[in-house]
Write a structure and sequence with these properties.
mainly alpha
């Protein structure tokens, strides 16, 4: 019998959801600093590796119903899974390389934040492309390599031409680094709070933030990466702490 395009697409979407469900990724579980999670993180990394392989195998034999569906898969679906993998790999490496005593030093996390800042600065053109929801180059960036032959990007890892696009991995790296920056910022701020002199009186600001907490976080990031402040002397963590004081809000509370 004939499988119509809409049914074929539904079957493909169902298989994708099955892969994502089987990987059992709990995002909130790994957003909090916890060195005792090493074995759990490693297990999740291996599960994600299997899921990414399964996703690649699925798409190799799949014919997309439209260019729109193809772009959606390579721009949103696959990068999300790979971003989880990259993010957990960074956390696992952190816990593996540093003794616990070093992880109580804010400078360790400041160093990683600076590395992420350099990454975003290097990829600022494409980062703006994503954040501004631009689509003018999507057919070049997010279609199969066998179609675009866009090998100028080093982010496709020379994978199978049917399961890879030129900029999908870069999207995943950006998503992973955003989460990694937030993780390191949280930890750095927590360390500073722990070391703060508890005898020093706190003078509360009369100004109270009344929007969502995520809006405050996005505003801090926007001010920092837009160059609205002196980033040479003020770190992202410093800006977040000042923002907390001014608006009586805990941006990075556990």
């Amino acid at each position: 019998f004939i499988v119509y395009p809409t049914i074929r697409m539904q079957m493909f979407e169902f298989k994708i959801q099955e892969v994502l469900k089987e990987c059992g990724y709990n995002e909130a579980l790994f957003d909090t600093y916890n060195p005792e999670q090493q074995s759990l993180i490693l297990k999740q990394i291996k599960t994600l590796e299997v899921s990414i392989f399964q996703l690649n195998e699925l798409v190799k034999t799949h014919e997309f119903e439209s260019i729109h569906h193809e772009i959606h898969f390579f721009k949103s679906v696959k990068p999300e899974l790979i971003a989880h993998y990259l993010y957990l790999s960074l956390i696992y490496q952190l816990y593996k390389e540093f003794p616990v005593v070093s992880l109580n030093n804010a400078h360790v996390f400041k160093k990683y934040c600076k590395q992420v800042f350099k990454f975003f600065k290097k990829e600022q053109a494409f980062y703006k492309y994503l954040k501004n929801n631009e689509t003018c180059h999507d057919t070049l960036y997010f279609r199969r390599l066998e179609t675009t032959l866009n090998f100028f990007s080093p982010n496709h890892l020379y994978s199978d031409l049917r399961s890879t696009c030129s900029h999908g991995l870069l999207v995943a790296k950006i998503k992973a680094n955003e989460k990694w920056m937030l993780f390191c910022t949280k930890r750095s701020i927590d360390i500073k709070k722990q070391n703060r002199d508890i005898t020093k009186p706190n003078v509360l600001s009369p100004v109270v933030w009344q929007a969502h907490k995520v809006d405050a976080i996005e505003l801090v990031y926007a001010l920092y990466y837009a160059g609205a402040i002196n980033v040479e002397k003020c770190t992202l963590q410093d800006l977040a702490l000042q923002f907390e004081k001014i608006f009586n809000i805990e941006i990075c509370s556990q």
